[in-house]
Design a protein that fits this description.
Blueprint (H helix, E strand, L loop, with lengths): L1 E9 L2 E6 L2 E7 L2 H4 L9 E6 L5 E6 L5 E2 L4 E2 L3 E7 L7 H13 L3 E7 L6 H16 L3 E4 L4 H12 L3 E6 L5 H8 L26 E4 L2 E4 L22 H6 L17 H7 L5 H15 L6
Helix pairs in contact: 2-8, 4-5
């Protein structure tokens, strides 16, 4: 019996990387009966006499999983946002940060196209980014030149399983193509009507980059909080986790409760008001979500 990591799933076959060898495997017959679906990123136990005919015997515990792309055990998400075209949006960034935090994935904020923005707007974006850094987020800013973005990003990919995500039309696919040109991911111009880029999805595969693995398909095509409970939302805002320890009530949701340290921190400007406004928006969205049966 050997252990390895699934790096590709295609047409019922799973390609398992173990000690620099890739073995083509099938899942055990009882997986389907037990509703077990191996995912790319899974750590598995498998048996194989050669590299073409292996069998996955067991899927080991996952630390997280995503639906789009279908992948498990992601370490970090590179959240790609542009300074301009489309304009930088803290509301959209906070939505992505909550989705990523809720899956216990480390976010890295990557702002592109800094060379295409006016000095005045650049100052305002820098101010936002300093606030995100002060919350403990890793933030980098690169130009519209893909090569520069790549050079800045590569050190972050070492030893991790990473997925790219973020605003549509900002160059996620261009970055992935620059990492591995043979991917030839389809990138279309931004539709000015929708303000969104169009992306053609494919099967998901982990590709080796530097000393790490990167999913070759951008993640989080759905931005709804389908799996997130109200009680979990405060834990997706690091500043609320820290300051919320001083709230009078345990389990304070920082909405209407008296003696709430988080609301005091917003009033005093310690927590930026836009972060709290987004928190309230997400809270209402989850509260009004239709129950699923």
């Amino acid at each position: 019996m050997q252990e390895g990591k699934i790096i590709k799933a295609l047409s019922g076959f799973y390609y398992v990387l173990s000690a620099e060898t890739i073995t083509q495997c099938r899942g055990r017959g009882n997986f389907r009966k037990n509703k077990i679906t191996p995912l790319v990123g899974d750590h598995v136990e498998f048996q194989a006499d050669n590299t073409q005919e292996g069998y996955i015997l067991k899927v080991l515990d996952r630390k997280n999983e995503l639906i789009r792309p279908p992948i498990a055990n992601v370490d970090q998400a590179i959240l790609v946002f542009s300074a301009v075209e489309p304009d930088f949006s803290t509301a959209l960034l906070d939505r992505f940060l909550v989705l990523v935090e809720s899956k216990e994935i480390m976010p890295i904020i990557c702002i592109t196209k800094k060379d295409l923005i006016s000095d005045t707007n650049l100052e305002s974006i820098h101010a936002y980014l300093e606030e995100y850094r002060s919350l403990g987020y890793e933030v980098l800013m690169t130009s519209s030149k893909t090569e520069e973005g790549l050079k800045d990003l590569l050190p972050y990919l070492n030893g991790k399983i990473s997925v790219f995500a973020g605003q549509s039309g900002v160059g996620k696919s261009s970055l992935l193509n620059a990492i591995r040109p043979e991917l030839d991911l389809k990138t279309d111009d931004i539709s000015t009507h929708l303000g969104r880029g169009k992306h053609t999805t494919r099967h998901v595969e982990l590709i080796e980059v530097e000393e790490g693995l990167v999913a070759d398909t951008p993640g989080f095509s759905s931005l709804e909080f389908n799996d997130l409970e109200l009680s979990e939302l405060p834990f997706c805002f690091p500043e609320m986790v820290k300051i919320g320890q001083d709230c009078k009530f345990r389990g304070c949701l920082h909405i209407n409760e008296p003696k709430c340290a988080v609301k005091n921190a917003v009033d005093e400007g310690v927590i930026p008001s836009y972060r709290y406004n987004h928190y309230q928006t997400f809270y209402e969205e989850i509260k009004d979500r239709k129950p699923r049966y």
